[in-house]
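Problem 12. The chain below contains 216 residues. Write out its predicted structure in token notation.
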Amino acid sequence: MPKIKLPRGNPSLDMTPMVDLAFLLVTFFMLTASVRMTEPVIVDTPESHSDKLLPENVIMLTVDKKGHTFFNISNVEVRIKTLEKMGKKYYITFSPEEIKQFGKMSSFGVPMKQLKKYISLTEKEKEAFNSPGVDSLELSNWIRFGHIQERTLAKTAQDKAKSLGHEFKDTPLRFAIKADGQANFLNVRDVIKVLTDNDIYMFNLITNLEKGDDVR
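Solution.
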């Protein structure tokens, strides 16, 4: 009896769901990605054995190898409110566009009299700009106003959550010093003094994790 030959067909794979998923992922990353702003100072921090992560809600004070001090606030809303307070203190008016651009910036190291000009620079111009650093008096005011504004906004958020019956999880504000390994200790000491003069005695020192000979 002859064998029955079954017809052979070429297997097919429907790629439509995979293509749809790929486009969904691309769309998601395009909508959630943010432009990384120019960092005006690059420091080579010393190494240590500490493996603690940098807090999310932080005021960062950076000291480069020349001893120049740079200031940054991670919370954009606090950063903007602090700029408005500093503008009132030093009688400098910032336009809505300047305030918006300041909110997008990273750290900066210019005195108040140069800040409007610095904000108006392009990212390429900021990268080439020779920042003189923030002096101790203005740095103290930035820290003080930043601390006050952060606590005020946190209290407002807490009251709003409480009124809605929601649980409020507060992320405490932390202070951190990121100094170049070749920076003069006296410059770092001056920054620490600014913190202690504002009754801030707890802060983080940012370092790189020391590399061992054996990786386990």
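Discussion. The radius of gyration is 25 Å. Students who got a different answer should revisit the alignment rule from Section 12.3.
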